[in-house]
Design goal:
The protein is mostly helical and about 210 residues long. It contains 11 helices and no strands. It is about 70% helix and about 0% strand. The chain starts with a helix and ends in an 11-residue tail after the last helix.
């Protein structure tokens, strides 16, 4: 901590006002920590939001000791968030392979038994491991990824909604529409009307 203080005090003056000078160094440190955390895997939007909160707090302060305390709190906060992020993102090789298999076969019917057989695992063990590491079921993950892929297809192609529904093996267009609306809070048609790319679409006959 003392080394951090000496950097802010002896690293050169950015302002003749001690309070402003301390704030400048606070911003520099906050930006450096934020960039490091992003590079280490922390979500960019979250990192920017955290950094912005602490910079705004420091900007409103007039007491140097309080800025020092806030700086330490910021470092601890970023450290804890990185630890939580690492725990959350620890995925076993089996689950990683499962996710990869699902992604490559979104347009085919996929069952847990089929994936388990491909991975040389029992369906029950795969289901428990996946739920533990991903916080959701294999079936729910498959559906979510299909809906995300379908949403993307709605924005960059002119395939009909029924064609997209069939491509991602939904049991029916009405089932697809219902699931899509639950996830995106709008129908596939509304989503396409809202997000359709201005670029030339990929045509269904291509």
């Amino acid at each position: 901590f003392q080394q951090r203080r000496s950097f802010g005090e002896e690293g050169g003056k950015l302002s003749s006002d001690k309070n402003i000078n301390r704030k400048y160094y606070f911003v520099m440190l906050a930006a450096t920590i934020m960039r490091f955390c992003i590079a280490a895997g922390l979500d960019r939007e979250s990192a920017f939001a955290i950094c912005s909160v602490y910079i705004n707090k420091a900007d409103a302060m007039t007491n140097l000791k309080k800025i020092d305390d806030l700086e330490m709190a910021m470092i601890v906060d970023f450290t804890k968030r990185m630890q939580e992020n690492r725990k959350k993102n620890v995925i076993s090789k089996q689950v990683s392979r499962c996710i990869d298999y699902i992604y490559k076969n979104l347009h085919h019917k996929i069952t847990v038994a089929e994936i388990a057989k491909h991975l040389d695992m029992t369906p029950s063990y795969l289901s428990k491991l996946f739920a533990k590491e991903m916080g959701t079921t294999v079936s729910a993950h498959i559906k979510e990824q299909r809906l995300i892929a379908a949403a993307k297809m709605l924005t960059i192609t002119d395939y009909s909604i029924s064609e997209i529904s069939e491509y991602f093996v939904f049991s029916s267009q009405s089932h697809f529409t219902s699931d899509f609306q639950k996830k995106f809070n709008m129908t596939p048609k509304k989503y396409r009307d809202t997000h359709f790319s201005n670029h030339k679409p990929i045509h269904s006959e291509a």
